[in-house]
Write a structure and sequence with these properties.
The chain is of the alpha/beta class and about 260 residues long. The protein has a single domain, classed as Rossmann fold (3-Layer(aba) Sandwich), CATH 3.40.50. The chain is about 35% helix and about 15% strand. The protein contains eight helices and ten strands. The strands form two sheets. A seven-stranded parallel β-sheet has the order 1-10-9-6-2-3-5, sandwiched between helices. Strand 2, helix 2 and strand 3 form a beta-alpha-beta unit. Helix 1 crosses helix 2. About 40% of the residues are buried. The model has no long low-confidence stretch (mean pLDDT about 95).
């Protein structure tokens, strides 16, 4: 596992955007670059940086296929809290060359949730798998909507949201947890870890325990983020504020390793 520690959220986002852009630019044209994407507050800064790079001609999305992590079950596209709306509002609509047919987001209005999830998995496989999956984690370490105690080999499926998750997300629904959908469609932990690379963003004091469990804790379905320890291409991009519960030796180790990488 690689842990890249940046001074603050903005620098973390800039580093992550530069890394993603470099991967896209280095990709061979024989097939599209397949990019997994999250929603939530963590990636917004990365999306802003990627938009800037795209408009400046520093990276093209013309040969990129995207797959989003999740979507609320029962929310139509036009609902301002659907993840379809979020992605278009914060990212896709601002890119100069993103092809609409290359955007893949789970359909929260499907009449066949299980079939929709199976179709999504099949399409990822048909595209040759995901080259890089960017993600964020919750304060309890959940990755996508894979709440604590979700199988670490899980695939895309229907997820029941915990009360804690609905309370946290209620800030987007008028602070009323009852307005937050009780179910979502989500890629599985196995879906994410099948990707060639996984880049997870972790920022803020409230994520410090989750970061420590991801890097130093035991591999356990209690902390689904811990599955990243078993991935040969896992990268954590974090800010100083999120490092509060790492041991001093771990913190110094990763700073030292990254310094050596830059030499």
């Amino acid at each position: 596992m690689r842990v890249v520690i940046q001074e603050n959220y903005d620098k973390m986002c800039k580093w992550a955007a530069e890394y993603i852009a470099a991967k896209i630019n280095a990709h061979h044209e024989d097939r599209p670059f397949v990019l997994g994407l999250p929603t939530g507050s963590s990636p917004i800064g990365v999306y802003r940086e990627l938009i800037k790079k795209n408009k400046a001609g520093e990276v093209s999305f013309g040969n990129v296929i995207t797959f989003n992590m999740d979507e609320y079950l029962g929310l139509p596209h036009e609902h301002d809290q659907s993840y379809w709306y979020f992605m278009h509002d914060n990212f896709f609509d601002h890119l100069t060359d993103m092809k609409p047919e290359n955007i893949n987001i789970l359909n929260g209005m499907t009449d066949d949730p299980e079939g929709e999830c199976a179709r999504y998995e099949a399409k990822i496989a048909a595209c040759g798998g995901i080259d890089l999956f960017m993600g964020g984690i919750g304060v309890d370490g959940h990755l996508a909507f894979n709440e604590p105690f979700t199988s670490l080999t899980s695939r895309t499926g229907v997820r029941a949201l915990t009360t804690d998750t609905r309370i946290v997300n209620s800030r987007f629904f008028g602070n009323d947890p009852e307005k937050v959908p009780a179910y979502a469609l989500s890629v599985g932990i196995g879906t994410v870890t099948d990707s060639k690379e996984v880049l997870v963003l972790i920022s803020g004091h409230n994520k410090a325990r989750a970061l420590a469990q991801t890097v130093e804790g035991n591999v356990s379905h209690k902390w689904t983020c811990s599955a990243l320890q078993m991935h040969n291409g896992a990268i954590i991009a974090c800010d100083e504020a999120a490092c509060g519960e790492l041991t001093v030796d771990t913190y110094k180790y990763f700073l030292d390793i990254e310094k050596a990488e830059r030499l």
